[in-house]
Amino acid sequence: MIKSLTKTTLTALATAATLAVSIGEAQAYRTVYNQTVNPVAGGKFEAIEDSFFGNRGVWCAASEYALRELGVSSTTRIYVQSPIGRSVTGSNRRGVVFGLKPPAGVSPVQVVSTGAALKTPGANLSVSHAQQFCLDYREVFGPDS
User: Fold this and answer.
1) Could you list the residue range(s) of the whole structural domain that residue 3 is in?
2) Mean pLDDT in consecutive groups of 10 residues from the start of the chain, 145 residues
3) With a threshold of 0.70, does the pTM exceed it?
4) Share in percent of the chain as helix, strand, coil (round to 5)
5) 30 - beta bridge partners?
6) Both 36 and 51 in a single domain?
7) Which residues, 6 or more positions from 74, have their beta carbon under 8 angstroms from its beta carbon?
């Protein structure tokens, strides 16, 4: 009885884990330039790093998600919540978690360098400023829709 209960429990857990991964993947947002942004609990979101796009591409992806998915205005600020590092939403990837408010207990930080800012909780840009980085990719991918 205990062996079959353990097997049943393990099977149920494996099924639940598979469903959770499938649901998470289904919620992934793809930007105009095919970058990935995933929702995170608490209204936060994670822009996944892509070697082609670099640091400016991470800001571009975050701003597009905020504008198109969250429906914020272009003057809304996006804040680094968790610095660039191992993704919280995808295995073997790196990402940056963003939010629309500064992280708790952290003062907003002015962005001087887009790369250094991704390592600094509280670093922020307006959506319109971060959208300017998307222009870097128009030549390669064409104008956004």
Assistant:
1) 1-28
2) 49 40 63 93 95 89 97 98 94 93 94 91 97 84 61
3) yes
4) 45, 25, 35
5) 36
6) yes
7) 67, 126, 127, 128, 131
